[in-house]
């Protein structure tokens, strides 16, 4: 059988399923594709590396402005005291943050 005959046979098989089964099959196919694409986007999310932890609000603002001026993507942690940058950008991010001034060291060393 050549390709055209096989495609005609597939079309006949689908048309013999009936409307309800064909709609159900289409729905399952769409849901499957959406789940696979969603998982692919979730897995391909770029990894983040921690730049600073335990920052006060003024330090966080100062470092955030320095990173934004250097066009380095960053995220503030959910606790509001940490900053992460994309993997591989830690050195450049730390250098940009140092140019803006080091974070205040308010913690005592024992």
TrEMBL record:
Transmembrane segments: 21-43
Pfam families recorded: YscJ_FliF
Sequence segments annotated as region (Disordered): 87-110
Keywords: Cell projection, Cilium, Flagellum, Membrane, Transmembrane, Transmembrane helix
InterPro entries, sorted: FliF_N_dom (IPR006182), YscJ/FliF (IPR043427)
Domain Flagellar M-ring N-terminal: 44-105
PANTHER family found in the cross-reference section: FLAGELLAR M-RING PROTEIN
Protein name (Swiss-Prot/TrEMBL): Flagellar M-ring protein
Species assigned in the record: Rhizobium favelukesii
Lineage of origin: Bacteria, Pseudomonadati, Pseudomonadota, Alphaproteobacteria, Hyphomicrobiales
Gene behind the chain: fliF1
């Amino acid at each position: 059988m050549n390709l055209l005959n096989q495609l005609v046979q597939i079309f006949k098989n689908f048309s013999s399923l009936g409307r309800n089964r064909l709609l159900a099959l289409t729905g399952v196919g769409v849901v499957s594709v959406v789940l696979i694409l969603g998982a692919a986007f979730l897995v391909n999310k770029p990894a983040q590396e921690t730049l600073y932890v335990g920052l006060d609000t003024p330090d966080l603002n100062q470092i955030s402005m320095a990173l934004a001026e250097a066009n380095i993507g960053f995220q503030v942690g959910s606790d509001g005291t940490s900053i992460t940058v994309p993997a591989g950008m830690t050195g450049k991010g730390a250098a940009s943050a140092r140019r803006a001034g080091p974070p205040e060291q308010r913690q005592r060393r024992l």
